[in-house]
Design brief:
alpha+beta
Length: 138
Amino acid sequence: MKILPLLLLGVVCALAGCVSPGSRVAANRAEFNTWPPDVQDNVLAGRIDVGYSIAQVRMALGAPDHITTRKDSDGTSEIWAYGDRSPRFSWGFGIGSGSRNSSIGVGVNHTVKGPSTASRVVFDQTGKVSSLETAAGR
């Protein structure tokens, strides 16, 4: 019976990692409703384009993995980098023993972060997407 609470904890943790554009839209419905229909469709599909705002990118793709800034003759740009966000699945099995006790454990992890249409998103000084850089084969 001791395994049941651990199993439930694992399921809760796995489900908490399943954040999608739809759940981000649901949390920000009022702002989402002010956008044009084509932008809404793209955000729900996890796609972005040049001219999108920081809020639109965050709602479509989620938080970036890394944020950097670049300063050049055009001004200062903010760059959001996204790593590979394809689904992941892993599992493990372990056996342990002590002086009086022994235990067996199994772990399963499944994470879905959602599609990413851009590896790097560059925002200009006004907070709009000025360019997208995609990885080969995406």
